[in-house]
Amino acid sequence: IFASSCENLPITLLEAMAAGLPIVCSDRGPMPEVLEDGGVYFDPEKPDSIASAIENLLLHPQKCQQLANRARELASQYSWSRCAEETFSFIVQTALQAREAVKIH
Question: Taking the chain, what is the end-to-end CA distance rounded to the nearest angstrom?
Answer without folding.
Answer: 54
